[in-house]
Amino acid sequence: MAAGSCLCGKVRYEINGNIGDVVHCHCVTCRKAHGAAFSSVAAVKVDDFTVLGDEHLSQFESSPGKIRHFCSHCGTQIYAKRKTSQHIVLRLGSLDESMDDSMEGSLQLKEKNHIWVSQKASWYSIDSHLPQCLEFE
């Protein structure tokens, strides 16, 4: 099981299943929503994802059919979901994990690629061996 939370701890979640491969999204909406050069995300099945403290969860439809969920108190982005999808897009920065990779139970996630590189910030250079996709792939 994996778990995560927002910065203030009012919203917590548990994952009782697999976390998909890590994708680094450089699209304009991810950059704006996170105030960063990109957002690192992974897919999780809806049925494997449980939110605790959801009364503190707010949402915003950032593009047609895509709802971003975040803590209404501290603003931490938790996940996004398309209305027709059976997966959520987990914001990996919200995961609670050990800083010591040798500890039992630490996450072993695999990076897949950078997406929406066509919209990446001009002030950021990607220095990575991962594939770079101009759009979503």
Give a short synopsis of this structure:
This protein has 137 residues and is mainly beta. The chain contains one helix and eleven strands.
The number of helical segments is 1
> DSSP strand (E) fraction?
35-45%
- Total count of domains: 1
CATH architecture: Beta Complex
Would you count the extended β strands for me? 11
Structural class: mainly beta
What coarse outline follows from CA principal-axis ratios? globular
What is the CATH first-level class name? Mainly Beta
- Mean pLDDT across every amino acid position: 91
The biggest beta sheet, please? 7 strands, mixed
Radius of gyration of CA atoms, rounded to a whole number: 15 Å
Separation of the first and last Cα atoms: 28 Å
Could you give the order of strands across the largest sheet? 6-7-8-9-4-3-11
Indicate the percent of residues in helices.
under 10%
Q: What is the chain-wise order of helices and strands?
A: EEEHEEEEEEEE
Oligomer: single chain
